[in-house]
Design brief:
By secondary structure, the chain is mainly alpha-helical. The chain has a domain of about 240 residues: A middle domain of Talin 1 (Up-down Bundle), CATH 1.20.1420. The chain is built from 14 helices and 2 strands. The protein is globular, with a radius of gyration of 20 Å.
Amino acid sequence: MMRWLLALVPIALAMEHLFHAPALWTFAVSVLAIIPLASLVKDATEEVATHLGSTIGGLLNVSFGNASELILALFVLRAGEAEVAKAQITGSLIGNSLLGLGLGATFGGVKYATQKFNAHKTGVLSSLLTLVVFALLIPAMFDYTERGIKNVPDPTSLDERMSLGVSVLLILIYLANLVYTLVTHRDTFADADEHHEPSGKPLWKSVMTLVVATVFVALVSEVVSGSLETASSSLGVSKFFLGITLLAVVGNAAEYITAVYFARKNRMDLVMGITLGSTIQVGLMVAPILVLASFAMGHPMTLVFRSPLELVAVAAAAFCVNAISRDGETNWFEGVLLLGVYSILAVAFFYVTP
């Protein structure tokens, strides 16, 4: 099905550059086109990784795991929509940990009464997710302290400098996590059934597929960011809501489908690794990179989330993941609970005043 959806890519580009179609239709088609492209980038990355050995291949996998999402956010940021880009970060954090994991646990639980996973590995991911919560909470508390307690008229410059420092620290922590999982404790985090043999496709073909797919992700992302304003007005919803739900979901849709597939195969360790691992990448790598890139673009973005609801949402996601991962097993009802929490948050975000 994903291969058929690739036909939407040239259609989206033609609607934008040749036919100048209505912005709402262009936005809808280009958003859908991101889904198969993200899947293609993911598959090509895995194919290249099989040729490079476990350590380098694993590094490539985690580095490009959220490439499509990062590219989309960069173009949104370049369009001057820093708040939408931050909303996309929040949406990815709660989407991966609540929606993605919830779908996997629900569909897997329908087939298997109880599904077990490695509680130790999931515990490490849960700890990192807790760190992400604190990393987002501290900038907001800093801004509140400067504005509300010390009565600083405009602490924006302080927020920007602090966000840069926090971003660098988050990237360093993420690099330490890579060393821990891919080098020093590789045997602990390696799954015997996760090994992939090379597909038979030459390395150069896999690399070319990855490069071409990434280029098209960039082209389509530019269309999405350019039509975001008009689409928001036409649909009667805020750009914030589109960023925190639609844009976040399409960038990760391929991972959700993969999570459901492996859950139906009773491989919950992989489901946990896919959904929570992607969540960690967003918090420790994608968000800091966006902050650093924003200054180079001339549209500075901080880690200060103005809406307390966003912070509550991320904290709720971390709490739910910690609660479910303690016993090392899931069932369909726990999946429904995760989906319920995500749905409640989505309804709340829909009614947030622009």
